[in-house]
Amino acid sequence: MSNYLKRIANGYTVATSLALLSMSALVTPAHGFESEVQSFFHGDWEVTCDNTHTCRAVGYHNPEQRNKAGEYNPVSVIFTRAAGENAKVTGRVKFGALSFDGEDKHAGNDTITLSINDTYQSVLLPELPSYEQKGIRFSGDRQLTDNQVSELLKALTMKGRVSIKFDSNTGDEWYLSTKGSTAVLLKMDDYQGLVETPFAIVKKGQVSKGIVQPKQVSVISIPDQPIPVTTAADLALATDADFNQRIRTALNNACDNVPAEDQPLELELARLTPNKLVVSTMCWSAAYNYGQAVWLVDDDAEIEPVLVTDSAVSYANGVIDEFMRGRGVGDCLSARRYIWNGSEFILADSYTTGACREIAPGGAWYIPTTVSTVINGIDPAAGIDCESEQAYSTQGMVKCAQRELAGLEWQMSEQLAEIERFSHAEYNTKADKTREAAAAIAQAQQAWRTFRKSECNVQQLSAAEGSMSLPLFVGCQVDLTQKRLQQLQLTKQLLMY
Fold first, then answer.
1. Neighbouring-strand partners of residue 79
2. Contact in structure between 21 and 183 (CB atoms under 8 Å)
3. Taking a C-beta distance cutoff of 8 angstroms, is the pair 370, 37 a contact?
4. Lysozyme inhibitor LprI-like N-terminal domain: from which residue to which, for each copy (predicted)?
5. Of 22, 249, 301, 492, which sits with the fewest C-beta atoms within 10 Å of its C-beta?
6. Contact 174/95 with Cβ under 8 angstroms?
7. Distance, CA of 47 to CA of 58 (rounded, Å)
8. Residues 6+ apart with CB under 8 A from 344
9. CA distances for 353 relative to 17, 147, 175, 293, angstroms
């Protein structure tokens, strides 16, 4: 359920009861939030706090420890806590499924029991459904209960020898390392201003000042006007001697991989605005990663190209993506995305998938460092802090829900574009089939929009003409769009595999 729909459900009660990872130097972070990202690593534990001040502490097995059968069984736990007083710590656990010998290590539907020092035992919940974050599919998560989270946190900050073990009904064992756990959880408290407060994990006290408050997700508004078409004249600049020299000078200042003077540059060009181009070329390469330099180049030759990043893997339609594997097997990734907001490229999101510990292909967890809401056009909730009491008024609930809806619409448009791209790849050169697929996708989406409107009209009418009529309508749209987005993600996965 939408955060704002939850507020809608009890909004009047609340309202009346209240007293009411480094980046290229020339890129502008979204509203400067990148500077607020914090991280700390110690032993087998790490903590990362994103630009909303939400922190995630992640622990792993000890790579040198083996179970009683002498086997190496990877495991990871993640604790998440938003900023602010009384913020709840939630937890999940995942068991290593990455195999180098073809054997399936996925715990699946096994019954698994958490044991702490052989005195506390608790059966874990079943696996949660798989989910997608930033185009990566995550699976195998098990939600920890409040009691399991509490007992684990006690054990992880306990002095002396502690054994944290997970046993399956099939005989498998996993051991969670405590090496570095206390230091990392203390740092998590420190980042959120909770040391010596009643809400700390490690050092509790009675202090109530200096607690870091949650910060709302930054909003990036994409211009409504379409990006201009790249012309033949634009593309011809790739072989223009003067233009090449201009880019070569910029390339020499930014990259290691610079062709000899008698070798042509391999440039990719795309028109971005009536007077600016996006120009990219290979900047560096390594064993399993590479990076392209991307510049914003003015048509005026007197203006120097502006470097956006030296580590891109792709550019399309105002979006620059970076993507890197931490090592060859691909069990840890990091990525960043920059989006054109009409005047500059903004860091829209960045994340890692945790340490390289053989937990899962792609990595164990989605650990964001920069998050944002991307929308087309004007922000419906401009000037409103949706993490504050402003969001509890009827108008605030509606506007914040409309912002959330606009962000979901943007994500949905991206999913639809990828589905169309994969459909095109499926039919390859069969143009008629490609057109049929595109038409079918568009028709299905239109039918869904008609359904959403009708369904939400019913909910709106249930409130008659009361003041909650519009909040219910928008909240219904948010919920149905979230479900539609999940359906599109599954459709894309089917086309991919």
1. 57, 91
2. no
3. yes
4. 386-488
5. 22
6. yes
7. 6
8. 28
9. 41, 26, 21, 24
pLDDT in tens, 341-388: 999 999 999 999 999 999 999 999 999 999 999 999 999 999 999 988
The C-alpha atoms of residue 152 and residue 332 are separated, in whole angstroms, by 25
Compute the distance between CA of residue 27 and CA of residue 339 in angstroms, rounded to an integer. 11
Q: Rounded to whole angstroms, what are the CA distances from 108 to 90, 95, 142, 170? A: 22, 9, 10, 11
DSSP 293-362: EEEEEESSTTSPPEEEEEEESEEETTEEEEEEESSTT-S-EEEEEEEE-SSSEEEEEEEE---SSSSSTT
pTM of the predicted model over 0.85: yes
**pLDDT at res. 466:** 66
Residue bearing tokens 């907001």: 341
Scored b (16 or more CB within 10 A) or e, 296-327 reads bbeeeeeeebbbbbbbbeebeebbbbbbbbbe
Q: How would you label 457-468 residue by residue, b for 16+ Cβ within 10 Å and e otherwise?
A: eebbeeeeeeeb
Q: What pLDDT shows up at residue 66?
A: 72
10 Å CB burial of residue 265 (0-12, 13-18, 19+) is middle
Closest CA to 480 of 494, 462, 463, 459: 459
In a 10 Å sphere around its CB, with 0-12 CB exposed, 13-18 middle and 19+ buried, how is residue 333 labelled?
buried
Q: Is 432 exposed, middle or buried (0-12, 13-18, 19+ CB in 10 A)?
A: exposed
Top CATH class of 389-496 equals: mainly alpha
Compute the distance between CA of residue 467 and CA of residue 460 in angstroms, rounded to an integer: 10
Q: What is the largest CA-CA distance in the chain?
A: 75
Q: Which fold has domain 35-213?
A: Immunoglobulin-like (2.60.40)
CA distance 412 to 430: 26
Q: Which residues pair with 286 in a beta bridge?
A: none
Q: Range(s) for CATH 1.20.1270.180 in the chain?
A: 389-496
